[in-house]
UniProtKB/TrEMBL annotation:
This is Uncharacterized protein. It comes from the Bacteria. The lineage of its organism: Bacteria, Bacillati, Cyanobacteriota, Cyanophyceae, Nostocales. It comes from Dendronalium phyllosphericum CENA369.
Length: 116
């Protein structure tokens, strides 16, 4: 395998966090411009979720974990908290709990969650 192939198949935690932040921003812009139900908005949201799940499955619980964001309003959310900052960030955006419970196995949720 070439270095490029390895980086594509096994991205670093830094690369995944960078992609999650960028896609999250693109999703918010797409929602503002085209509405929440536009194909671009839905695709961006789903890509962000996929990248977050990939981050968790690759790096949790040693480098990232799920914690309930008790300050969020509306639907219950997890924050993907980083154990060490990456580019001045201590989290990799939010993931709705209902989505996490739908996508992740119970065993994964138990492994990835940190309770206060």
């Amino acid at each position: 395998m070439t270095d490029e192939t390895t980086q594509l198949l096994y991205p670093s935690i830094e690369k995944l966090v960078e992609e999650i932040v960028a896609v999250n921003h693109a999703w918010k812009v797409a929602c503002e411009l085209f509405g929440q139900d536009s194909p671009l908005s839905i695709s961006s949201r789903d890509l962000k979720t996929y990248l977050q799940v990939r981050l968790l499955r690759s790096y949790a619980p040693e480098q990232v974990y799920l914690i309930e964001d008790k300050e969020s309003e509306g639907e219950p959310l997890y924050s993907l908290r980083l154990r060490e900052s990456i580019g001045n960030r201590l989290y990799a955006e939010h993931l709705p709990m209902r989505i996490a419970q739908k996508i992740l196995a119970d065993k994964e949720l138990e492994q990835f969650e940190r309770h206060n």
